[in-house]
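MODEL INPUT / OUTPUT PAIR
PAIR INDEX: 1
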Amino acid sequence: MRLATWNVNSIRTRADRVAAFLERHDVDVLAMQETKCRDDQFPEMVFSALGYQVAHLGHSQWNGVAILSRVGLEDVTAGFPGMPSWSSKEGQDPVPEARALGATCDGVRVWSLYVPNGRTLADPHYTYKLEWLAALRDTGAGWLADDPAAPVALVGDWNIAPQDDDVWDMSVFSTSTHVSAPERAAFRAVVDAGYADVVRPRAPGPGVYTYWDYTQLRFPRREGMRIDFVLGSPALATRVTGAFIDREERKGKGASDHAPVVVDLT
């Protein structure tokens, strides 16, 4: 199985580009984040024509997660147990956002995750982010406690650079989200719960990134961040035979600000 994850930053804008990526790399399962559309707006026909089944979770022009699979798509689940809710307006009741979608693809439980950004260290969204990650850690640990042999892939845009090598200049981010000690601790907690970063050993840094801001020529200046990851349960990690980040997909007109991460499994 070839499994990939990609924050596409609007699937309606980049459907043809995503389809070309799937064909070029012969991808079996693709998890997407930040699709930025409702379920009825998702361009499903583009991918069904290529033989993919589609699961999508989107409520508005923000967030949105999807899983495409040509090796089966079963037990589709919107959100994980205990996932916190969020309200963007004061006085409005919090609701679950479109940030987590699970499906079983040829026996592998794949979760497409779009972790909250956090915005600033003083913003309530930052607290929401930490609570969201803590809930994911607790739920993920529970899955492995129930079935230690379960092949589970937690993939997507984590909005965390867990090591200093994962940012082009730490001094630029020293007082920002994505690199704060609590965020990094929350990421390590998921790893410690049994989910290994299966890409880093095969694509080590420094200077290896998955995201480059559109502004200030960040991409040509190689000023990026590594915030997109594939974390695998023990049963999944032992099946990994290769992994890479397709930096070429960040190039050209109409590119997402993220690059796909690809993992090969026996």
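PAIR INDEX: 2
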Amino acid sequence: MKILRSLLLAPIFALAFSTVAQAVVRTQVVQYKQGNTVLEGYLAYDDEIQGRRPGVMVVHEWTGINPYIQQRAQQLAKLGYVAFAADIYGKGIRPKNPQEAAAQAKIYRSNRQLMRDRALAGLQVLQKNSLTDVQRIAAIGYCFGGSTVLELARSGANVAGVVSFHGSLDTPNPSDAKNIKGKVLVLHGAEDPLVPPEQVLGFAEEMGTAGVDWQLIAYGGAVHSFTNPEAGNDKSQGTAYNQLADRRSWQDMRQFFAEIFGVR
């Protein structure tokens, strides 16, 4: 009888557990503005955590906010952060192919002030969120987003640190590195043809000249987009997923957060 009762109750317990597990991470689309431009970001947080917690802004690849970036925000929420995926391009602008993505990214790479302004608008959304500990905020970005968070730091934004995953490191304003207030972590594919050694050396000189607390970790065998499974596995194309580098870079980010936030 006890066995039968257990079997009958098992589906109920499983359903209850599933419901609780799915209810932990809350997500919502957040509409906001930079100037007259309407932007549409994505917020994720764990509703079982009480009170304020560190905030992490996430900046998308050149394809804009998509399921991949939303997943990263959810991962951060599961780690106990309030995560906000900022929209650099604008509401409804979601490139459908590499040509459209390149055209959109070019707008901001050629206008770094606009890139910074869009990033700052997203940061302000995170800062104003009632769950965010405004003294403990970081920004991370992937590819195009990595470049963006570095520009955000160069603008003098009040962030404890920024993390670039396989982002470009060049800037037309290297002297602006003197404005950086937080720490910088660059997670780089050692064989990335889109971020060649001379660009890495230039970045190192920029950070050193400005006296920034910075780190660069290069992953052997990794090329551009090494964290995104949708990048495929053909390294000869210059972009490819690397599972080992993906896992290691995420752990390196977590260690960085432990240092700047004082949490694990």
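PAIR 2 NOTE: Residues 1-23 have pLDDT under 50 and may be disordered.
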